[in-house]
Amino acid sequence: MKGLREGSKDKYEMWFKSESRGKFVHITYAAVHDEEGEFQGVLEYVQDIQPYREIDTDYFRGLE
């Protein structure tokens, strides 16, 4: 997380199987800055990506 604090990175992303939840999750850590660009903290968000791993087709539906 040092890169977020120092400004060399905007975000870190990772995914893994959560043993406690029994599913794959995607985690993003994003730097939060104020109007002057000063580091304020880190926003963490977690997404359940298990449904995507279970897709058995390469079908893609484009956005309109």
Automatic annotation (TrEMBL):
<dbReference type="Pfam" id="PF13596">
    <property type="entry name" value="PAS_10"/>
</dbReference>
<protein>
    <submittedName>
        <fullName>Fumarate reductase, flavoprotein subunit</fullName>
    </submittedName>
</protein>
